[in-house]
Design brief:
It is a single chain. This protein is 46% helix and 19% strand. The chain is of the alpha/beta class. Helix 7 (217-249) packs across helix 10. The protein is built from 15 helices and 19 strands.
């Protein structure tokens, strides 16, 4: 049997073997932990986000290189320091400190994230926009041992967001500009149609009347005068359209020569003076005859000054005043045209020289025209190397336009001059229209003609009178209402585009009067230069029975009026 010593020796041997096994197991565990820690450190050091870990008291236990770069702290100097010292964050707008997410993760034991627009302030004061999240570090038993915070620089993302916002804003602006340009184009086309058709109405109408041979000498003279006046007006409109086309396509050429601008301005003043005298507008001139010569196209520069003066006369009321001055300003010659007219609103002033822009593009506008004159002025002045600008203190305070051209040096030579290209207009042959035989006579029919254009009113009155109608005329919607209240007409013929109240407002008021008085509806004809499909629909839904586009054949016009009163067949 083993002795007691043998048993003790055996126990000691077993204990030594167990101790050695435990030691080996512990070393293996420590080595495994070290390898895992090294692997984790390498992994955390190689990722693109910043990583900082802390113990349960919030002291730094680890930082990877990205965290070092963003915070400005080296891991060696950060270890053992409070995370709040290493990781300083504030809100972008208010600059108020933000509660440290790692501390919140330690306190609440949950994963937390930063709100948007958080700024990390580095050790050297550099600021980084970041987002991050923090989570508690737990033992196998669930005890909180510390926290880890992961964060990243979002500067590039914010830059891309700002760029996206900028591109979106630019796209929205471009869309608005395109919509505005499209609207202006539509307004211009409607205005151009109106302005070209209106003089044609008088020309075609009076021409047909002359061909009947039934006009007396006084009516013939009035007809010829109206035809000439409206043909001249339409020529000016076409010239403006052609000038704009040449300017846009770069085909406008100038015959440059040394000229004295005083002669050009004087000729332009003399050209518009009769129109100004008709409105009793005083034109005062002040010329510095020693201002010096300029190099330019005399005809085009006269066109510029004429446009400015015509614009001033148009927008200056009766008994107004226009001042025209020419003077030397340093190395430039300045021409200014100041009026006491309607003035320009601050909203429209920046666009006063733009093509297709008008301060009033509605059917109730007070002044005719295409709205191209000032755009042509700017283009011609700039082609001469000059500048032009406008100023107004607002509606009712008049306006002043100033153009400046460089003074021609005494030694300067005109250089190569290019004569303006010849323009040949092919006249369209006017087809024969229907003769005015007045088959449907209008004797006893009272017709109220409403149109703000006097030539059109007179022509329509002559056509209807020729067919024995009793014709009343009115120059505005207000006058028309007075005439209807005085003696109700059998037929109403009205233009649509008129100052203050247009034809749409007129028919609306007429239909309301009839509804209140319980009277029969007056057959109404809209005779207008607004000829688009939507204009026709609007006129018919507004209360007119018929919509006719200007210019209209007199025979067709008479037949439509006769149909409106039930005399479509020969009586």
């Amino acid at each position: 049997m083993p002795t007691k010593d043998d048993e003790e020796q055996l126990l000691r041997s077993v204990a030594q073997q167990n101790a050695q096994s435990i030691y080996i197991a512990r070393r293996r565990a420590e080595e495994a932990l070290r390898k895992q820690t090294d692997w984790l450190r390498v992994t955390l050091s190689s990722i693109g986000d910043g990583v900082i870990s802390t113990d349960v008291e919030g002291r730094v236990t680890f930082m990877n290189r990205v965290a070092e770069s963003l915070t400005g702290w080296a891991e060696s100097e950060a270890l053992g320091r409070s995370l709040t010292e290493i990781f300083q964050i504030v809100t972008e707008q208010s600059r108020e400190p933000v509660e440290n997410p790692a501390q919140r993760a330690l306190n609440a034991g949950i994963i937390v994230g930063l709100a948007n627009h958080t700024i990390l302030i580095a050790k050297d004061g550099t600021e980084w926009p970041i987002d991050d999240s923090a989570a508690p570090i737990r033992s196998e038993k669930g005890e909180v041992l510390g926290a880890v915070i992961i964060f990243r620089d979002i500067s590039e993302r914010k830059r891309m967001e700002l760029e996206r916002e900028r591109l979106l804003a630019a796209a929205q602006t471009a869309q608005k500009e395109a919509e505005q340009a499209n609207r202006l184009k539509d307004e211009f086309l409607a205005t151009a149609s109106h302005e070209l058709r209106t003089p044609l109405t008088a020309v075609v109408g009076w021409s047909r009347m002359l061909r009947t041979g039934k006009l007396d000498d006084e009516s013939v003279a009035r007809a010829l005068e109206a035809i000439e006046r409206n043909a001249t007006l339409q020529t000016k409109l076409i010239d403006d359209l052609l000038d704009v086309s040449r300017i846009i396509t770069g085909k406008l050429t100038l015959d440059r020569r040394p000229i004295e601008l005083a002669h050009v301005v004087s000729d332009a003043v003399n050209t518009v003076r009769p129109v100004a005298d008709a409105k009793n507008i005083e034109i005062e001139t002040r010329f510095d005859t020693q201002a010096g010569p300029v190099l330019g196209d005399a005809n085009r520069l006269q066109q510029v000054v004429w446009n400015l003066l015509s614009n001033a006369v148009k927008f200056t009321p009766k008994n107004g005043r226009i001042e025209v001055a020419l003077q030397r300003v340093n190395s430039e010659v300045e021409v200014s045209v100041a009026d006491s007219g309607e003035g320009i609103s601050s909203e429209f002033l920046p666009y006063v020289f733009d093509r297709f822009r008008q301060g009033d593009g509605k059917t109730t506008r007070l002044h005719s025209g295409l709205g191209l004159g000032l755009a042509i002025v700017r283009q011609l002045v700039e082609l001469h190397g000059g500048t032009v600008n406008a100023h107004s203190d607002g509606p009712g305070h008049g306006a002043i336009f100033k153009l400046r051209l460089p003074v021609l040096s005494i030694n300067s030579a005109p250089g190569n001059t290019t004569a303006a290209g010849d323009l040949t207009l092919t006249r369209a042959r006017v087809t024969d229209g229907l003769s005015i035989d007045c088959g449907p006579t209008l004797d006893g029919v009272r017709v109220l003609v409403v149109d703000d254009d006097s030539d059109t009113r007179q022509m329509l009155k002559a056509v209807l009178s020729e067919c024995q109608a009793d014709v009343i005329t009115a120059a505005s919607a207000a006058e028309a209402i007075q005439e209807i209240e005085r003696r109700k007409p059998d037929v109403l013929v009205s233009d649509l585009g008129m100052p203050e109240q247009d034809g749409y407002e007129l028919i609306k008021n007429v239909r309301e009067m009839e509804s209140v008085d319980h009277t029969a509806r007056i057959p109404a004809l809209a005779l207008t230069a607004y000829a688009k499909a939507e204009d026709r629909v609007r006129a018919l839904t507004g209360g007119y029975q018929v919509h006719l586009s200007k210019p209209v054949e007199p025979a067709e016009f008479v037949l439509v009026v006769a149909n409106l009163v039930g005399r479509g067949q020969s009586s």
